[in-house]
């Protein structure tokens, strides 16, 4: 098939297998050019097919030399229809890992379900014995609970409604958007989906199955950001879920013997999940411009490589006064934030290219789905029914 992008708002309904493979290969090459990390040897990554989870898996495997099990929720392609980019990313990851003799297996299914938990525990028991690192990197829109009901997360404020600038990713224009407050029920559902309930469930089940090594580490990812995004994010419904996630980290460390849990507060980046949030993508595109000019811009792979090499597997786990790992340290530097705020105040549709890295943002968005990648022939016929080695 000759695959072209079909972008619908903040999602692309097609993905390019060769582009996704090139994307994964570039991340592997980046990691292999860095000094090796004396870190995890056996890791489980939940949400490992895209964004921060994929980059974590690549860094664990190709820098630490770890055996990895990934949990993904993706669609395989056929000759008539492309698969999801997470599927192609995982196929490429396993191909390159296996070529270097690294153990890599993947479970494709809903990470919230008991069936997937049972399957993963069985796999660890049979193949690895115990894991020493669990990364929980889910960004899910909904969760089906054990009683069969489904709850959805919302991206809304709490308290009153909030108006600020946003970017329309369809035509790259800047306009005002008003975000309505979430109801108490919507907030509770968002916490159920994106809070820590499922994370601690995973940890407790892995512990009682005897598949966690002594002094195992577990990490989940969060975001704080500057005040302009707070009503939408930090103080919004998603922020409530992230507060629950942070509380859960403390609860895991206190209640599950021999396990240390941390929240890593990561940088704002273009991923499938973050593109869906109003206001934040406009902030991110300005941040890209400012951090690129300052020479401090990082993508998912640079963030995750620095996380493991410097913050997690250095002399000790490096945290702030609240016990959080701050991978947003460069983003939150006062001089970066001052410049972002100055541009935020003056940005409009007319000066958008001057105030923000719109082309960089768009390019990274396309790259999530395997498009806009140098060296990929987008006119060539490609096999869209690629298989993942470990999934038969
Ligand atoms: P992403 O959309 O790139 O990746 C999410 C992953 O979760 C995908 O692999 C997806 O397949 C998987 N997933 C979703 N639902 C699933 C399910 N039910 N079962 C199994 N897998 C499932 O998202 P991301 O931006 O990398 O987000 C990962 C984490 O990082 C989230 O907790 C997010 O809040 C956090 N974070 C993101 C940013 C950012 O700017 N992107 C910043 C800081 C923190």
Model description:
Helix 2 (51-62) runs parallel beside helix 3 (85-99). The protein contains 13 helices and 13 strands. It is an alpha/beta fold and 392 residues long. Helix 3 (85-99) links the parallel strand 4 (67-72) and strand 5. Nicotinamide-adenine-dinucleotide is lined by residues 47, 49-53, 71-74, 86, 110-112, 137-140, 221-223, 266, 268-269, 271-274.
Give me a quick take on this structure.
This protein is an alpha/beta fold and 392 residues long. 41% of the residues lie in helices and 17% in strands. The strands form four sheets. Strands 5-4-3-6-11-12-13 form a seven-stranded parallel beta sheet, with helices on both faces. The protein has a two-stranded antiparallel ribbon with strand order 1-2.
